[in-house]
Amino acid sequence: MNSHLSKITAIVGAQWGDEGKGKITDFFAGESDYVVRFHGGNNAGHTIIVDDVTFKLHLIPSGIVYGTPISIIGNGVVVDPKALLNEIAYVKEKGINPKLMVSDRAHVIMPYHIALDSVLSGHQGELAAGSTNRGIAPVYADKMYRNGIRMIDLLEPEVFREKLEKGYDFAVGIIVKALGSSFNKSIEEIFDTYIQYGEELKKYISDTSVELYNAHKSGKSILFEGAQGISLDVDHGIYPYTTSSNTAAGHISTGTGVSFRNVNRIIGVVKAYLSRVGESPLPSEIHGGEANTLREKGGEYGTTTGRPRRVGWLDLVQVRQAVRVNGLTEIALTKLDVLNGFKELPVCTSYECSGKIIKEMPASLEQYRKATPIYETLPGWEDLPEKIWDKGFSALPQTLKNYIKFIEANVDCSVKIISVGPQRHETIIR
After folding, report:
1. CA 91 → CA 20, 55, 65, 84, distances in Å?
2. Nearest-CA neighbor of 59 among 249, 227, 211?
3. Highest-scoring range by mean pLDDT, 74-78, 127-131, 257-261
4. How far apart are CA 55 and CA 72, in angstroms?
5. Looking at the DSSP assignment, which residues form a beta bridge with residue 177?
6. By the 8 A CB rule, do 365 and 371 touch?
7. Strand 100-103 to strand 205-206: parallel, antiparallel, or no bridges (unpaired)?
């Protein structure tokens, strides 16, 4: 595997999240010196299976399951200190002593952010994105309002108190006066609790941008781990049915302080079909028995929420955007084994909307709502040969190879990594 690893590699989601980024990140993480999260918070979830042991992580990068890499939570991530401490305890219980660093510039999720998230979810109506109620949108909003609190502030009580009074008054004013709800936690209670969180997390908090700069200069390998997918990007996704951060690879620079010109490999993770947690139009969504079969075979339930995911056929309009916006150098195609036994596999290549053919993701919500998928149907394959990962690409069924070639031809990007099972070793490199 060493020959496949570049000095700075990024792994990002090319769909709605839940593409299998955790597994692909895990595949490379053992050879990396650093594994870095650059956006989002504990609203994301990734599952890694190592030697039949399952790890479900939300905030800490996937590389934590190894002893060697240092896991970094960058400044573009928003941190719930309680959730982070719980996750640290979780990995310790599984026998891992976490080598973890948290950016001193990362913003902190406060109790009033979580309360505000819950209240706002009802306020959004039909345009609600389907929040996890973790406080993600409000903390990013406070960051832009300049009412935010950063991790470094938890170590400086006087500054923390000053910022807390400002942020508390603003958020609670919205909750109570504007939205007619209630919030019962006092400033004193929050102050004492979060100062204690700061004390417990103090050893992990540092200037991670300097750490990564020096690591790169000394020739260390760095792996950036995206959370969620391109269609959830707040700028490039299906707005407003998005997350509150930038999920695209370009956010690595602002979310970590590492220059984007140093990233020389960008892997887009594409699930061989489609799934989505949350609201929004979904042109290639399927329903009924076929959908149930796909959902059960793929275990399509949210890592964070446990909610059944909506499922559908692969949408290459979406993948085309992922290739373009992220500057993908290659694709990792996952969960091909879930499609075993399907006689036919429809693939969406474009949309029809009001008599027009659309090949690129529209900004227009009206167009996206009206979009009808145009499919090309490919023949499926039966069960894959035993231990196919040991035999390589040439041993794959011809119909599966054709499925891969069809994707490559339609999105102008090579499929270099092929995942045929949930565990790390169930992977083929071309």
Report:
1. 20, 8, 8, 11
2. 227
3. 74-78
4. 18
5. none
6. no
7. parallel
CA-nearest of 27, 16, 3, 66 to 267 is 27
**109 Cβ partners below 8 Å, 6+ apart?**
41, 78, 79, 80, 81, 83, 134, 135, 136, 139
Total residues found in the chain within this entry: 430
Active site residues: 18, 46
Six-digit token pair at 179? 């939205």
| E-strand stretches of 104-212 | 107-108, 205-206
Q: Domains along the chain?
A: 2-94+209-429 (3.90.170.10), 107-204 (1.10.300.10)
The single residue listed with the structure tokens 């935010």 is 148
What residues have CB less than 8 Å from 44, skipping those under 6 apart? 17, 58, 59, 227, 228, 304
pLDDT of residue 26: 81
pLDDT digits 0-9 by tens, 126-141: 555 556 788 999 999 9
Measure the CA–CA gap between 78 and 246, rounded to whole angstroms.
12
Strand 344-353 and strand 330-334: the pairing is unpaired
- In whole angstroms, what is the distance from residue 269 CA to residue 59 CA? 19
